[in-house]
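Example complex used in Figure S2.
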Amino acid sequence: MKAEGWSRLAGEEDLSFYPMIRKIDVLSSNSFLISSDDDLILIDPGAIPKQADAILSVIADLPQTQNVTGILLTHTHVDHCHSLVSHPRLRSFADRAYSHVSGVKALKTEDYGVTQATLLGKRLSPTLLGNPLFSGNQESGKYGLPEETISFPGDLEIIAYHTPGHSPESICYRIGENLFIGDTLFAGSPGIAGMVGYSREDLLKSLYGLKKMITGERISVCHSGHGKPIQAQDAIRSIDLVAKQVRELDGIETHTPGRMRETALFAEDLMAEIDETLTIISGRITYVSHMLDELEEGASAGEISTVLDSAAVDDLLARYNSFAEEYRRGAHQPILLALNAANIAGKIDRLIDRGGLGVVIEPWLIDHLDELINDYMTLFRGFRPVATLRDCNPAALCRNIVDSLDPRHADQLLESASADDFAASLALRMGRVQVVNEGSVTVCAADENLSAIMDPNRFERATRTLITQYAACGADDISIVIHEDYNSIMIRIATADTPPDTRQLRYLRKAFALSGGTVLRSDNRMVVRYPAGRTII
Amino acid sequence: MEITIAETGGVRFADLSGRIDSTTAPEAETILRSFAGEQEGDVIVNCAGLDYISSGGLRILLVIEKELKGSGRHVILCGLRTKVEKIFRLTGFTSIFTIEKTVNDAVAHHR
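Predicted assembly (648 residues):
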């Protein structure tokens, strides 16, 4: 937490301002103290005891003894208000606290949903705030936002604007040219949009009103509930961006604790798969670079080794794995793992240069990595990953997959015209490490023209991954059997050898399910049923 | 990650356990290089306790192998768990290193 010290509040000669800015996370919000001669206002006490102690210490250090005359909550998510219900000293100021009337009710009735207490693993205790706002039928003001002026004992006046959307009880507070905007600018973010109480329609309306108000009231600075203050022009640009994000979020699912646990479990499986895939990609780059070096192709070896910043990727994965280990020991809530995985997956996504990797890594492995990252981010944003289902010929698909497992497939080595072409083709050939031995996979179809309804791209990647995993675990005899069973097409991919580990099988089950199938068995026999399609001849 | 030096049948080997990732790889590299410096002939690394290896871990093994190769010596890996051996197979590293099933097999190869 960065305490800035006391300074003048922008545009307000008579008001002092003490912001406590934290790095952005979901553990606790920023806190702000505003002091006049006779008033002392705290906006959002946050959720960390140390932060509450720091606030009280700043107050105790004031030259004149001053009592808190008001605590304003931008909303009642626990990261903004938990200290008010849990810290003994701050709790004693509850009669001086202000929140939207529905927030007052949420804290009084210990509403674990609206406050996100379940999601963030916080305990509540019934707390009665003294000052419900917007308890009448306030008319919308000139910006289309209901507004209410709060008058404090020392004559300080602050205007509250009801800005629902992120949560029903969200409020922005204006003091002169300063606007305290709570979580408004995060409301469209993945993992945030879709929380209990989120309303897309309300949010779009609030964003529209806020944008007009920032201009109309000549706001100079917006103080966000998380992160640094934002100049008004930047805030307007951010509001436009949030509105765009929110407009695109039609059909989002609500982040219930159950869904967040599911997301966290999926996050663990997908991040483990991303970890392994990146280790394979990075390892193959090292391998090819080494082999080229051995062949005294030093220049090519050097170029190849730069197509991926392996050290940066390794660092990110080590950070995630360390956090996941703490999560498994019970140190973090599922939402924190889900957020951490999204953060790491996003950074990895930005580090990957698909074109560069294509010089040495076979396309399906890059597609597989893309699919993993996209699926996780899709789920994390509150959507379900999409399968594009159509009539397919599974026998033909499987034969294509098996043919392409041989590195000599589509070999361009002999066609290389120049020395440079040859070195490039050689690198690509070396990067296609032969994991599955020639002739070790057989395809047996009861009818070559059987048709199944499936997503062929997802099916292909899931099947390739499974066969490669079986082979990498030592299997040398893998069979794919396809037959019709009433109105279904059954596909069995089996080996007599050891299957991959439980975690990977769980991921593969999901991958086949996302291809449109129903997984009936998953060990050293993966049995998947697809609806029969129209016969393709 | 932990590396201890053990001995069987008069042959010393490095016993590697835990995880080798970007955090632990530099320490692993230092210890293995130092062990290789104290040894004559091939360097046996028992990976029976190794749970996880990142690409950074693969790289440090390759660096040590390259350093030894100049003097006709090699790294011999043994005891790889299925999960770790799978990574060696999938990256092509099985063609760079000599990999034996057990420490005894590695010692026999060493002789």
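The first strand of chain A starts at residue 2 and ends at 3. Chain A has a mean pLDDT of 89.
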